[in-house]
């Protein structure tokens, strides 16, 4: 069967990763969470106290970063490795979420991540989720899905996810973080988050995960045939 590239973009906590992961599983495709790469770079910068406004410091630091994905059979998805260390849990913490949009806006950081993402797609058979996948990483993707959801619903979903790990988190913290990231992600100079002209919008505010997947699978089948 013909293999295609599927780009899934959208704002934070719209359920992009859930959809992309489920699509990849159904299609037996590789799933790549591109946000995890920006999160791992952010974690490195925070740990090593790299000033990301200093281009020379960023370029030097990037030389010491290697990013890999390692399949975790229990979760049915890949964990993020930063220089061979599994950082999957740490990159989801608020400390990283608070800074990742700033780091992801740095031109050199984007060039570094995008080059690796493009390599992963050479053989097709891939579902990648992010902010610029349909516009910059894979502008020729056979299918581009732009996921949206009601802002209040997104806050609720994200809060539930984070509260399970940290009971000190408040709804207000989550809302502020999502609003800030939405703003920075869509206003940065390099590859801002925007819907590709040929993307199909999938609003999942009132859809179950299964309904969302069904709609997306229909689109995949149309593209493959
Ligand atoms: O998908 P996520 O929330 O884990 O992404 C974390 C941040 O990384 C997000 O706020 C913006 C950035 N990002 C990006 O700029 N481009 C991508 N392709 C993926 C994520």
Describe this structure in words.
This protein is an alpha/beta fold and 225 residues long. The protein has one domain: P-loop containing nucleotide triphosphate hydrolases (Rossmann fold, 3-Layer(aba) Sandwich). It is built from nine helices and eight strands. It has helices spanning 16-27, 34-47, 55-63, 94-104, 107-120, 133-137, 151-165, 171-187, 209-224, and strands spanning 5-10, 30-33, 67-72, 77-82, 85-86, 126-130, 143-148, 200-203. β4 (77-82) and β5 (85-86) form a beta hairpin. α1 packs across α9 (209-224). The model has no long low-confidence stretch (mean pLDDT 95). 2'-deoxycytidine-5'-monophosphate binds next to α2, α4 and α8.
| Count of separate DSSP helical elements | 9
Report the CATH C-level class: Alpha Beta
Shape: globular
**How much helix, percentage-wise, in residues?**
40-55%
CATH superfamily: P-loop containing nucleotide triphosphate hydrolases
Taken together, the total number of domains comes to 1
The value of Rg in angstroms is 17 Å
Residue runs with pLDDT of under 50 for 5 or more positions: none
Mean pLDDT: 95
What ligand molecules are bound, each kind once?
A: 2'-deoxycytidine-5'-monophosphate
* Number of strand segments: 8
The SSE string, one letter per element, is EHEHHEEEHHEHEHHEH
The N- to C-terminal Cα distance equals 9 Å
